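Quick question, first post here. What does this chain look like in 3D?
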Amino acid sequence: MTAAKVRKPAVAGRFYPASASTLRDVVRRCIEQASVPTLQRVRAVIAPHAGYACSGVVAGAAFRALQGNCEGEAIVYLLGPAHYKPVRGVAASSAEAFATPLGTVPVAVQTVTRLVTVDRLAHCDDLAHAPEHCLEVELPFLQQALGEHFRIVPLLLDDEADIAGLAEFLANEMRERPSALIVVSSDLSHYHPYAEAVRLDRALVQAILAGDLEGVAVGEACGRIPILCLMQVAQQLAWPAHLLAYANSGDTCGPKHEVVGYAALAFTER
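> Answer (accepted):
Ran it through. Tokens below.
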């Protein structure tokens, strides 16, 4: 029997602690300290993906909302933007698991295979996944929130992604799999003065809450394409969106003259 192909951590010790015990404590605190409204049947969240010192408190709100909303083993469709390499659409991974200091997270290999070979909505690009932080930083939060009872479908999207096709696929998956979840990884505006960033981010968040695809398309978010895909899923399934938390790096980890925005949102069944 051959050893499983495991995607190794790329940003442990930089974006989050490399020590398992320290990482577990940091993630637990971020989740436990979050104050979120009581929501029933959370099926998707948007969470930031900066270093935990900057965005961990906001990410904690997204994953606190997921706790208790999963029955049985979940498949988590994990969507984020490709930061390091053009993927010309949707890039899946051929790995069988993704590793973090907290252990390995299995990939839903059959689902990835179907996306790539049957539906042809994605292709494998391990060179894009190898250095990518946006999906990796969500994994310790998922491990804390869901325990060992989930598998992931890791997808990186860029401007050439077939958003409508992927949204239709995901909407069908959400209908057929009551325990399936979607996690979109995205930061908001980048490197504006504090007040301008708050204005831009507020407009984008309001567009998400209103289901305004055009408003999001012209807004600033590095995960704009994955967000638009999730919004199309939400429109097909009549999922309302809820704002859980907002902050920027000027609030959490840096100066206010040039900040990055972070928001946590949840989508629920009606």
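The chain has ten helices and twelve strands.
The first strand starts at residue 6 and ends at 7.
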